[in-house]
Design a protein that fits this description.
Blueprint: H1 2-15, H2 24-38, H3 48-62, H4 74-102, H5 120-127, H6 134-140, H7 146-161, H8 165-182, H9 197-223
Helix pairs in contact: 2-3, 2-4, 3-4, 3-9, 7-8
Length: about 220
């Protein structure tokens, strides 16, 4: 009897699987890719589920240290999605603070003259890459609705372009040019023909991921 109980306990122990926890490495990678997604011309909104979905596209493609098939376990995958919601929130907060600081406000919150603003190149070193239309939007809407207004601006750009990727990129380049002309001294030269390899990787992953999602949805619709 005692031997049987021991065997039973060993079997139960062998079957036990520890609860999944998001690793520090995964959190680091999610945060790293969150800023690149925020700065991608392939996203449709900077906030909400669409932003999280875009980040999950990258996570599923690159895997990082995810156990195989984790996305098929709802309770465990929810933890990864939670990390995917948290990282963009933190990044958005950082970008907003950096953009505000670039305008060099005084103690009363009054911005410095435009010529004294941090130029876009130096600002980009802090944010990682071109912030494009963000600064002009911030000056008009510096409150809690900054990212909502930025979403509105992004929507306007995409609607005007009618899905044409070249027109969308052209609009962002124009926003960058406007920022260069308006803020700080232009003591730098930007080569628009040089593409940041990391940003390009993210843009490509999103393009592939969104295309796969559309194909999958169409397939499900035809089978319904």
């Amino acid at each position: 009897m005692g031997g049987d109980d021991s065997d039973s306990e060993e079997g139960a122990g062998a079957a036990f699987t520890p609860s999944y926890k998001v690793s520090a490495d995964l959190n680091t990678n999610v945060a790293k890719y969150a800023i690149a997604i925020l700065l991608s011309s392939n996203i449709t909104t900077y906030k909400g589920d669409a932003m999280t979905d875009a980040l999950m596209v990258v996570v599923k493609k690159l895997r990082f240290d995810l156990p195989p098939g984790l996305e098929n376990i709802p309770t465990d995958w929810a933890k990864v999605v939670g990390a995917g919601k948290y990282a963009p929130t933190q990044r958005r907060s950082k970008v907003k603070k950096v953009v505000r600081a670039s305008l060099k406000p005084n103690e009363d919150g009054v911005y410095a003259p435009s010529v004294e603003h941090q130029n876009i190149y130096d600002l980009a070193q802090v944010v990682i890459k071109d912030t494009q239309c963000e600064r002009n939007v911030y000056m008009k809407h510096p409150g809690n609705n900054f990212w909502d207004k930025l979403d509105d601006r992004l929507s306007q750009i995409r609607n005007a372009a009618k899905g044409d990727k070249k027109k969308i990129v052209r609009a962002f380049r124009q926003a960058l040019t406007d920022d260069q002309n308006k803020h700080g001294a232009k003591t730098y030269v930007l080569d628009e023909n040089v593409v940041d390899t990391f940003q390009q990787e993210v843009d490509d992953l999103l393009a592939i991921g969104f295309a796969d999602a559309v194909t999958s949805a169409q397939a499900q619709g035809s089978n319904a």
